[in-house]
Amino acid sequence: MWKTILRRFLIMIPELIILSMLVFLLAKAMPGDPFLGSINPKSSPQQIHHLMQANGLYDPWYQQYWNWVVHLFHGDLGMSYEYKEPVVGLIQQRGLNTLWLALFTMIMTYMIALPLGVYAGKHEGKWQDNLVRVYTYVTMAIPFFVVLVLGIWIFGYLFNLFPTAGSISPTATGFGTVISRLTHIILPGLLGALFGTVNIVQYLRSEVIDAKHSAYVKTAKSKGIPMKDIYRHHIFRNSLLPIAAFSGYSITGLLAGSIFTEMVFSYPGMGLLFLNAVNYRDYTVITALVLLYGFLNLLGTLISDVVLAVIDPRIRVE
């Protein structure tokens, strides 16, 4: 198991190198430059030319790539052209905000989806099952940004229960910062969780129904094992396998940030940072974030394999 994990990490190295080259070249191929109009709309061509030259943007692409890789290994991802801050500091700050939101969203997603999926599968064909299926169909039919806007209008403006922008109150101090951060992530986290439960509920419902009619459940019933124990030790455990296969991607996907959620709520996270970087041609931020997203994607594959092996001891990556 540990040998496989180490081998997967070693395989990730050439994949990340190829990804970094592609990302760097595609970022450089974007039209425009990071200085035109971002400093002063009336900047002269001579000023723009001087800034481009000072930042090495006239050097050959391979020279720029090599300089970027050298600085990368020294923990320096460069300066953001738009924010005038080190990219490492920007990612740390925004990444922490996204981490809090991602953890809350993920916990709430599984807390809602797992009981609903098992409940629907347990009551197959009954009104309880139909009620859960109506919930999944309605959630799937409504676009995510509509859910976000409705949530802001109802819970943010109509009832004034939660803040609708930012990640923390500027006046919060001490323990109040924790409370403020929590109140800022409850609404976007719950809305994201409600939208993210659809696939998990449907997968789990189908797996529970299949498991109910399997041979090992019939054998357990014939031995007189109570149904609650059969659900706990047999049906639920085996039904989690397909969900566990995608768990790694779900975790790393949330860490990458949700552009829709962060844009609607003006939440300063990774998704909004990436969107702004594209808009302002902030090459250093774009290359760093896409490389990070690529690493998270590869890491998600590894996490999924490990989770599968933990849930089902029969599955071992040799």
Automatic annotation (TrEMBL):
CDD domains: TM_PBP2. Residues 95-304 form the ABC transmembrane type-1 domain. This is Oligopeptide transport system permease protein OppB. Keywords: Cell membrane, Membrane, Transmembrane, Transmembrane helix, Transport. InterPro entries: BPD_transp_1_N, MetI-like, MetI-like_sf. Pfam families: BPD_transp_1 (PF00528), BPD_transp_1_N (PF19300). It comes from Fructilactobacillus florum 8D. Gene3D superfamilies: MetI-like. One of its GO terms (cellular component) is plasma membrane. Belongs to the binding-protein-dependent transport system permease family. Its main location: membrane. PROSITE patterns: ABC_TM1. The keyword Membrane applies. The chain crosses the membrane at residues 99-122, 134-162, 182-204, 240-265, 285-311. One of its GO terms (biological process) is transmembrane transport. The keyword Transmembrane helix applies. It is a multi-pass membrane protein. It is found in: Cell membrane.
